[in-house]
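Sharing a chain and its predicted structure for anyone who wants a worked example. Both blocks are below, sequence first, tokens second.
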Amino acid sequence: MTTIQHEYSETISQLRDTIEKLCTEYSGEYWREKDRKREYPTEFVNAVTELGLLAALIPEQYGGSGLTITAGVEILKAIHEFGGNAAACHAQMYTMGTVLQHGNEEQKQRYLPRIASGEIRLQAFAVTEPGAGSDTTSITTTATRDGDVYRINGQKIWTSRAEHSDLMLLLARTTAKDEVKKRSDGLSVFLVDMQSARENGMTIQPIRTMINHSTTQVFFDDVVVPVENLIGDEGKGFKYILSGMNAERILIAGECAGDARWFISKARDYACERHVFGRPIGQNQGIQFPIARAFVQAEAAEAILDKACTIFESGAASCGTYANMAKLLTSEASWAAAEACMQTFGGFAFAEDYDIERKFREARLYLTAPISTNLILSYIGEHELGMPRSY
């Protein structure tokens, strides 16, 4: 795309080649059709699974490739850079981390090899609730111990892919908020068998949105979950979820970086090819400069993303800061590139056949999710700058 050449290891180069070929098979027309009908891209997800890409971060002893989060980022980045959309399956990369890091050996042996092979999907991540929003410690969905089972009651919202997942990672309250010393205590994590739950009190309602994201709200009416499906210690689930959220933010930052590359490449090519008033429109600074600025912004954001990966892999305590910064910067870079691309193409950007309007809608999501920009800035202000807590 540019004179700047990104250097990749042999493994990453092979992954990118594989993904580029895959995205050629699942081109824009495939995604446009899915978008029009709001259909889940089952064929693409199956193909990604068969190639072992979703199992990249699962250790080899459990059937995965045992790669680092850097590889996971590059996989998702490449899918978006070459025109695809990994949102239909990206959760499996970070939700399985909760099982891997905090589950017992029996749980790892029982689930991870089957997730790695594609026999089962762990795509649903049920944390957010209508009344709590980003204030996770205020969730009210309860898990009440009843002998050898827990009974789940409550509601989750924005639980994407719930209709297309075999397992759900669920955060629920096991101790009332007014009975705990720390507001982050009393929350527990469970693996929920979706088929069993849907037959015994779970109701899933799709939410139609401006993008094809397969998101839902989920209702629990005395849903029974076996005690052995508790992940880690009861009441410590908030800490377990936070560790997974750092991975989530870094991996989704990879998608944003890939989107930025896609928009910039599209805009650059069109600006050089499109002639108006007898010359390429890219000769006009009003067109050229926004694309150039978007490129600078995207490169800078990727540098922070690379650092976030390095810190995550080292296990350093500052991982949260860099995971948040990477998500903020790459999402803003992607949006700047999207805006530049829309302006470059003019009226044609609104035509479905160019894929820009679809990718434009998809890119906007990550300024809001999985964590809003304001919450990231609040985190930086408190934890890095020592300012008073704002929430």
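Comments welcome. The chain has a mean pLDDT of 96.
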